[in-house]
Amino acid sequence: MSKRWIALLVAVPVLVVAIATAFILRSASRPMASDAGNADVQANQAGLPASMPPPARPPGAISSTPAAAQKSDASADELARMRTENAALRAEINRLGEKQTSSSIKSTAPAGVVQTQPILGALKSPAPIVPATLPASFTGSISGSSWISKDGVSSDIQRGLTISVIRGTATKAAVVQCLDVEIDYRLDSAKQNDATAADLRKNAGPDFDPGKEYADDAARDRQVAADIRRAITQLPAQMGVNEAHKVIAFYAYNFRSNFDAVVASSLVKRERTDADGKYTIDGISEGDYFLYAEIHTPSLFVDWVVPVHVAAGTTVKVDLFNDNAAVINKADPDPNR
Known about the structure:
This protein has helices at residues 3-29, 35-47, 67-106, 172-201, 212-232, 241-251, 260-266; strands at 139-145, 147-150, 154-157, 162-167, 169-171, 238-240, 267-272, 278-285, 287-297, 300-310, 315-317, 327-329. The chain has 337 residues and is α+β, with helices and mostly antiparallel strands. It folds into two domains: 3-55 and 63-106; 136-329, Immunoglobulin-like (Sandwich). The strands form four sheets. A five-stranded antiparallel beta sheet has the order 7-4-9-10-12. The protein has a three-stranded mixed beta sheet with strand order 8-1-11, with no helix packed on it. The longest helix is centred in the N-terminal third of the chain and has 40 residues, at 67-106.
């Protein structure tokens, strides 16, 4: 709101009070009007609002009100007119003030200027909602140990073993990604076996084929790759994690199943076993999951896909060892796999 409007808003009430005071003093000093004139003035003061002028007389009508009463009526009319103009002026000032406030709310501060005071009438932004951390009573934990028994006599504690908590379902896309790795490996293996068979046959006689064994392996690898492609076309959109693992392990070379894509797509949380082979995974929401872990060395491959139910406010114990392993292969002939 500009200073001119503020000054006008202050001056108008003062002017109205001054005129009203002068009118009262002049009325008190004049002689009393006639009974008819007093009746008109009293009716005007009692029944008509200040902003409404008295009813107009018809043209040509002769007023019976004495001159003094007519002068008093004229002063009252002038006061009513000023009050009406004052009310209209106040309404205009209020309208302009609301318009200016509305435009101020929409305006933004210039670049580089930090606004420290809120704009008059502007709405304050609500405080951001910070998600609360679930209390321990709403989550559960999984703990246990991992070891591998050798011939039922000695055991190897599995230190630094990564144990993953994964959801119970796997998508077709994740399973296909795992199977694609097997297809690529089979085709690469077939190519290498074909090359080896060709080299052995270069100097071989007609009665002996030194490359036959490698050629047979190459044909077998290509057939497995074709079988995997055919199996992919029959996969559902979703399946249980344990079923997905069986499909992948069935086609896996030397039972070294590549389950990484399924684990990554369904992962909830993971931890490593400590120096004693123990682990604890906290903050798991109540529900059904699987624990996945694998050991892959030149002489040993072990795969775990163990179902587990987590209840809120409790700790469930799950050990990973020989009896609940999904795959155990003690002689992996391909340590570079």
